[in-house]
Amino acid sequence: MTSPHSAAAAAPRHLLTLDGLPREALEALLIRAQAFAEGHYDRRALDGLAVCTLFFEPSTRTRMSFQLATQRLGAQALNFDASTSSTSKGETALDTFKNLEAMGVRGFVVRHREDGAVAALAEHARPGTVLINAGDGRSAHPTQGLLDMLTLRQAKGIDFSGLRVLIVGDVRHSRVARSDLQALRTLGTGEIRVCGPAALLPDDGTLHGCTVSQDLDAALDGVDAVMMLRLQRERMEEGLVASLDDYHRDYGLTAARLRRAAADAAVMHPGPINRGVEITDEVADGPQSLILTQVANGVAARMAVLEALLKG
């Protein structure tokens, strides 16, 4: 969220990143999301407001869960489809945003391929208009980070200090990984491990404080949760991955590999899943998988964000 970040301060205006969000503010959102997950909410909380999912990239889970979250809180959900909009005629994202804002839309859930695109729109927002980053470039996906932390809390408890969490895959190009790493640090996670091919690991400060490895078997040893990342097929075209078979051999999560983790280790994946590449059917659909729980929690987490920013 943009400043002020203090939980005691006035409600922040936008949610652009989890980076810098104080622990008490993050935990407040998670507590509220848990209440929503249990069915405790006011169906008229946002009555009379309009919220637009302004997506310039494809989406299934994020778009649909935001629309459900909006409707469950009583607001009007508007769906923007870039492929059938005036953006195909050359209209800029900013002009599209300003025109919808002029119609009285107060909340915007924005996904864009470019880093910083949502923050750039936020700079032009009128007072009373709020923006939520639904994923920009490789920078951030804050509500995915929230729903992942909610899922972990449900499975492992609210104290993360004793947890060992492993993130596997293409961290370099992953906005999900960046938001998860920010949230895990903020919540005081005991050990954060990261594993992937060297070509798919960032060389900036993203992995500060993490235990980094290219050996998945070793990285899995005793972990309490494994967060798999989608392998973007274009990385093969860029020559960063030799083949899907090679990637699966070295970094795919199989039932045999999972046995190296703690016996009750949670398996997570933000979707969409490339079955047989980053994870096998047996694991994705197995008893330790929380993948569909993550999907369900996406609605609750996004309800918490919408309420925090738009109510009042």
Automatic annotation (TrEMBL):
GO biological process: 'de novo' pyrimidine nucleobase biosynthetic process; 'de novo' UMP biosynthetic process; amino acid metabolic process
Catalytic activity annotation: carbamoyl phosphate + L-aspartate = N-carbamoyl-L-aspartate + phosphate + H(+)
Enzymatic class: transferase
Amino acids binding carbamoyl phosphate: R61, T62, R111, H141, Q144, G271, P272
GO CC terms in record: cytosol
All residue ranges annotated as the Aspartate/ornithine carbamoyltransferase Asp/Orn-binding domain in the record: 162-308
Record has Lyase as a keyword: no
Cross-referenced SUPFAM superfamilies: Aspartate/ornithine carbamoyltransferase
Example of a GO MF term: aspartate carbamoyltransferase activity
Gene3D superfamilies on file: Aspartate/ornithine carbamoyltransferase
Keywords: Pyrimidine biosynthesis, Transferase
Domain Aspartate/ornithine carbamoyltransferase carbamoyl-P binding: 13-154
Pfam families on file: OTCace, OTCace_N
Pathway involvement of the protein, from the record: Pyrimidine metabolism; UMP biosynthesis via de novo pathway; (S)-dihydroorotate from bicarbonate: step 2/3
Binding-site residues, L-aspartate: K89, R175, R230
EC code: 2.1.3.2
Record flagged with keyword Transferase: yes
Similarity comment text for this entry: Belongs to the aspartate/ornithine carbamoyltransferase superfamily. ATCase family.
Assembly behavior: Heterododecamer (2C3:3R2) of six catalytic PyrB chains organized as two trimers (C3), and six regulatory PyrI chains organized as three dimers (R2).
Name used for this protein in its record: Aspartate carbamoyltransferase
